[in-house]
Amino acid sequence: CAGRNGASAAARSESAAAVLRGERERLVQIVARKPRLALREGAPGCGWAFDWRRHRVTVDPTDVRTLAPDLCRGLTVHEASHAALTVVQDFLPRTTLCRYIHLINAVEDLRIDAWSASRFPGSAPWLMAHNAVAHGMIRERGLPRSRQAQFLLGMRERGAFGTTAAETLPEVVTALDACQAAVDEAVACQPPPGDTPAGIATSQQRMWSIVRDRIVPTWTALVKMDRADGIGALARRELEAFATDIADDPSATLSRGGRHRHQGAAHRRLCLPGGAADPRAPDPAPAAAAEGGPGGRIKRLQKGPQAGRGGGGATQGGARHHQRR
User: Fold this and answer.
1) How far is the C-alpha of 91 from the C-alpha of 52, rounded, in Å?
2) pLDDT tens digits, residue range 242-274?
3) Predicted model pTM
4) Is 268 in a helix, a strand, or coil?
5) Burial letters for 227-265: b for 16+ Cβ neighbours within 10 Å, e otherwise?
6) How many helices (H) and strands (E) does the chain have?
7) Cys-Cys link to 191, which of 163, 199, 298, 311 (CB 3.0-4.6 A)?
8) Residue 13: its pLDDT value, please?
């Protein structure tokens, strides 16, 4: 009897996962405005990746079975928004991308989330849910020591929640205040309605111009402060761990030949209680919710039983894939 019950539960879980997989592919195509964009499952633990050369999104099959559905939808919308809007790799030299990739990625994430919430209002709760849980996990582990990591964390938390950690270093708060208007203007660099390739490219170039001229000088000063204090290597590790925690590993874009890859350390923190997928998870008409319909209400966003213990899978260079965002 126990065996039959277990098999029945597994079948329900697989059925729910299949529904969610199909939904995600439609969601990716709608948000990215790319009807031929394919979604495929990789090996367990592979992370999430958008390959703009092959027009393909690869997802971690473990996520479908362990993430709360609305968190998974938020991650899907975010990835699809990169597919739609992120073209900085098309015009920036590789050396510039390598030097400023963490800074660029922090601003770009705010920009694409603003775009997707505007174009697809029903997706806003999914994005908010993911940001809340991911940043909550970061806060539980403690504030990073380096000024660079504190600056990026503060930028994202101000953009998402309008707040900054009370323990943030005074010089970082000063830097955030000095750059706030520039960040707001960079995030506001949105393509005009219609999202034409020319409009997308122009908006991305405007964003980079603001970052280069008005944020990079402050960022460079923080880098110098960290190096002067002998924590340059620590800062690099914290930036890599931070990128991994929020499930954006921008370094993978540069190292994997045209792929924006999502991997992170939040799997145990984002899954449903007990780590099992809710068989009731896929609710009806989620794509309609993304377009602004009545769906998208956050359901069961509790963290897993080991939430926030020691930082999970954050490793140097993001070498270990997040079991998942």
Assistant:
1) 15
2) 776 665 444 343 333 344 444 433 333 333 333
3) 0.72
4) helix
5) eeeebeebbbbbbbbbbbbbbbbbbbbeeeeebbbbbbb
6) 13, 4
7) 199
8) 60
